[in-house]
Amino acid sequence: GEGFFSVKGDESRPFIVHTPVGHIKVVGTEFNVSSTSGGLEVNVQEGKVLVYTSTDSAYLEAGQSASLEAEKPINIVDSVDVNQWGYATRRFDFQDVPLSNVFESIEKAYPYTIEVGNKDIKNCRLTASFDHVSAREMLNLIGETLDLTIQENDSTFRVEGKGCPWVQ
Predict the structure, then answer these.
(1) 47-94, pLDDT tens digit by residue?
(2) How far apart are CA 3 and CA 68, in angstroms?
(3) Which of 106, 116, 157, 158 is exposed most, by the fewest CB atoms within 10 A?
(4) DSSP state string for 41-85
(5) DSSP bridge pairs for 30
(6) Whole-angstrom distance, CA of residue 49 vs CA of residue 60
(7) Closest Cα to residue 42, out of 32, 50, 52, 56?
């Protein structure tokens, strides 16, 4: 499962998220938690959290993320992908991101499926920011920017166009 939390700190009643892999104690923050059967990922947007397991613990501050696996040390990274919690905030910041990732973020945030007519479309890269923009508006702006055609049919968007060659 996954959840985005915005919590005010209250020392008398700490807010703790428990998962099978590890736990997160809130100090007053906004953060995202993604839990899978074998792991846990925590991304902090604002404030500070304590992440801990039976064998390790670490404080995470804004702009940091951590991944946890059972019986392994906590892995901390000094960066976060703000698009991971775009489903909750409806704010996206794509900086030279492949459209495959952009489409995944949109599909996670909105009840739509995005299909491409040419697989090379997913190779195109996008730099753009969106703040509380509908999926339809985002896709139309992406289409105009990258010379793609967007067709909507119920809950599916179909993206057509030349696309971009794969570059390593």
Answers:
(1) 889 998 888 999 999 999 999 888 889 999 998 888 988 999 999 999
(2) 16
(3) 158
(4) EEEEEEEEEEEE-SS-EEEEETT-EEEEETTS--EEES---GGGG
(5) 6, 46
(6) 5
(7) 32
